[in-house]
Amino acid sequence: TPPPGSTPSEPDGTERMSEMFTSGKDWDPFTPAELAVLAKVHERLGPALADVPVDLLAQFVRSAPHTASGEPCVGERLEAALAWRAREGVDQLVQAPPVGRDEFEWLMPAGCVGHDREGRPVILERPGRDRQAVLAALAAMSAEEFVRQQVCSKECIRHFLGAASRRRGRRISKFVSVIDAGGIGRHHFDRRNVAFFKAFAEVSSANYPDCLERLFVVRAPYLMTALWALLRPLLHPVTAAKVSILGGDYAAALEADGVSLPSGKLPESDELEGWVASTRRLLAAARAEAGESPSLAEGVLPPADARAIRQLLAAPRATPAARRPSPRERAPPAEVAKGEGAPLDSLCRKEEQEARLAPASVLVGPVHATVDSAAAWLAALAARLAICVEGGGSQRSPVPA
Predict the structure, then answer these.
(1) Helix (H, G, I), strand (E, B), or coil: what is residue 110?
(2) What CA–CA distances, in Å, run from 219 to 181, 193, 265, 393?
């Protein structure tokens, strides 16, 4: 309550925008505020709106509250993401995976292991399978190669989201992530490896926004639990509520949250088929059932959203606002590395350079080992949350992810 005689302050733009947008279900039709964002996207893309994959369209439209500029920025971000996909050949990654894919999938087992009660895929990642082998592989890998492998996994997840949508007959654009932290040590997250995760976080947040429903970290060591207690207050409460850090007794917690595992437990690493093989099998089964390959561009849309898109495409296109120069165009040449839609190689070279130039600590002994371990875990967890939750910044955002 304001003091007597004072005037209540007006809410700022982000607070007003937060009130306009609600965190509904993936399959809910767009709200009036989201339809306004969709209209702005059409202003930017024009007839090309018809070719935007429906899962990406929903994710970008619903990511509008997470951007400082709101809906006018979404069309530019989506346009940049589509250009990035074409430039990097992202649509071909499942059929033509990156070199060394089999080794990468063996070192970092992952896959779809079940569904939640509403049909969303449950994705398991187990990066701590063989500590020494993982560290050796990361040491021999460039940041660009690491990011491309992770993007390949993201594309596989999109196909599982599409299959879930067809199975339930409604749009499903978010997944549940389970990260098995057993076997992970602080050496997984030295400066160079954390730079890799940061590079992927940049690419992921720019091109795969608003795709996480829940994140569970299981078999988490005590250090990670303690560091999460430090990181949690820095996140918006809605974002923080998406994350659960669990120990070894995680099965009951997963079940209580509606996560259904066919065998009642998480599979062992050797039981995971691998992203590329399982995705190809998924597509082959869908092709055999429908007589043609499923298209992510079509997907499953709520009738109201499909009608709104048809009306936009049929109406005269509004004159788009003057194009703002991209960050790559505004930045001086020496700083062109992290702009929207920046090529993977320039982005990753900047991250590798930062890792190489980072000053080495002069501290030694047990105290330094403890502090270094804590800093590494905190940075790694923050990077992973940035990848999954579209945030992970150092300051608390007023708008939930």
Answers:
(1) strand
(2) 6, 21, 13, 25
Pairing state of beta strands 212-218 and 243-245? parallel
User: What type of residue sits at position 314?
Assistant: A
Is residue 179 a contact partner of residue 221, using CB atoms and an 8 Å limit?
Answer: no
Closest C-alpha among 154, 158, 174, 157 to residue 112: 157
Can you spell out the DSSP letters for 38-77? HHHHHHHHGGGGGGS-HHHHHHHHTTGGGSTT-HHHHHHH
CB 23 within 8 A of CB 400: yes
Q: What is the pTM assigned to this prediction? A: 0.76
pLDDT, tens digit (0-9, with 9 covering 90-100), for 306-324: 999 999 999 876 665 555 5
Strands 259-260, 110-116: parallel, antiparallel or unpaired by DSSP?
antiparallel
Q: Are the C-beta atoms of residues 178 and 266 closer than 8 Å to each other?
A: yes
Q: By C-alpha distance, which of 146, 158, 179 is closest to 94?
A: 158
Residue 309 contacts residue 300 (beta carbons within 8 Å): no
Judged against a pLDDT cut of 50, whether residue 152 lies above it is answered with: yes
- For 19, the 3-state DSSP assignment is helix
Which amino acid makes up residue 398?
A: P
DSSP secondary structure letters along 254-323: HHHTTEE-TTSSPPPGGG---HHHHHHHHHHHHHHHHSS---TTT----HHHHHHHHHHHHSPPPPPPPP
